[in-house]
Amino acid sequence: MAAPSSVKPFSPEETQTILHHLQQPAVFKNMTCGWPVLRWTAEHLSGCLGNKLIRFRLGRKVEKNTPLFETQCSYVEAKLAHFLSWTQDQPGTDVGPFSEYPKSEYWAYADYKYIALLFQDQPSMFEDVQWSELGFEGRNGRESTLWVGTEGANTPCHMDSYGCNVVLQVQGRKRWHLFPPEDTVKLYPTRIPYEESSVFSQVDVLHPDPRRFPAFQGARAHVVTLQPGQVLYVPRHWWHYVESVDPITVSVNSWIELEVDDMERVSEAVTKAVVFALKSTMSDDNNDDWLNPTEEGVSGHNENMQYLNLALRASAQRQRGLCHSKLTPYPRDTRPVKRDSRGQIRKNSDSVAFSVPFGPHLTPVQSQQEHSPAMRGVTTNDLEVSSDTAQLENKTECDSSLTQCRTCDCADGTSGSSSEDYEESIHTTISTNDLLDCLVHPDVIACVTELLLERHTGTHRSMTSS
Q1: Are 259 and 161 contacting, i.e. CB atoms less than 8 angstroms apart?
Q2: What confidence score (pLDDT) does residue 117 get?
């Protein structure tokens, strides 16, 4: 195993302190020198994997103004050697099952491959990934995933509910389009396709349809092209769309699960129960491929309700514990509880204000709006004030944006269409997915979650009292 060849700009402890205070995506540079994983090019991995078959996702290189979800892609099982021959596009070479997919028309992606499964017979390779040098003690390739793709390979825009992402680019470049949690309403979230802990956007962020999704024009894209050797940190609840921009790209991703808020776990249980109940009911308009391939399968209603009750019970117990602690006569530190990247409670030792050391070794991923001609001379504070004002106006005019479904695009406080469009829209047939999008809208789920917790604890009030 190769030893680090130079002194890193930040120690593991310093890196963890930085991650604890980062409120936006940022890129670490010069932190992975000497990591053996940097040798993991597609050619090197092909030699390591030999005849092992890997599942590739393939998509057409076309612009449709709609996201290409994983449920809409083609899939093949092939050797990495087949993939490499296909990318070289040389006549007469063995490309295996890729022969049915012209390279000029398709991109391919071996995405979200668990390194622990890929190299279960070569466990020494786990040590090539040295996340411990970033302060994640004991974490290596065993807890990571591998991503190998061609130019154009992409992951639909989505938000991960339960954790943050740390990504190392090994070969080629990937472009990340990131959006802050506050822009969720402008990204038109949907739970179809369904994947637990992931929420997808209905918008094709590279080629948005302004008529269907007018509010997206106000979303603040933070864009960065990740270079080999660089590490990107994506905070919790940040939306991201990822695309490969070089002929072959290889990256390693470690998803750091943070402590899950009880309300969030109940909300996910409610969402799952509703989605599975509606989508498991066959009807003329309810025959789409709605379960993401990453999900294990459809669970029954009884199982989903058991999961919901367990989540409610855990949340109620936590609330009772908090209420009990408030009755104790001992003084408590009332500052918010701070946790590290593993969800562990931090000691209140950082009483002095901490300034993130941005510079040549750590760069923030900036908002594209800050560099557009229309935004010249506008400060970050102005952006924050404008965003808050817009959100307040949006909440007032659209009633907490509950109208943001597939059939209504007034999330930015405007109709976004002419009277003719409106006359046409009121005659549109509502589908099962339209109904589902409204039922599992974040604001609706939050309200249902609160009501369920009140009912579970015996404190529910009359619906007419509010």
Answers
A1: no
A2: 97
CA dihedral for 302, 304, 309, 314, sign (positive or negative): positive
Decide if 31 is inside a domain.
yes
Q: What is the CATH number of the domain that holds 19?
A: 2.60.120.10
Boundaries of domain holding 305: 261-327+400-466
Unique residue bearing structure tokens 């990591």 = 35
Out of 204, 222, 257, a domain closes at 257
Asked whether residue 3 is assigned to any structural domain, the reply reads: no
Please name the amino acid found at residue 269.
A
Question: Are 214 and 292 part of one and the same domain?
Answer: no
List Cβ neighbours of 216 (8 Å cut-off, separation of 6 or more).
186, 187, 188, 203, 205, 208, 210
Give CA–CA dist 421/431, Å, rounded: 19
Taking alpha carbons only, the member of 9, 80, 6 closest to residue 42 is: 80
Q: If you search the block for the tokens 């092909």, which residue do you land on?
A: 46
Angle at alpha carbon of residue 38, lines to 135 and 29, rounded to 5°: 55
Supply 247's token pair: 């002929």
**Of 220, 241, 257, which marks where a domain is finished?**
257
Q: Which stretch of 39-53, 139-153, 217-231, 369-383 has the lowest confidence by average pLDDT?
A: 369-383
d(CA 61, CA 83): 17
Residues 108 and 21 grouped into a single domain: yes
pTM of the model: 0.82
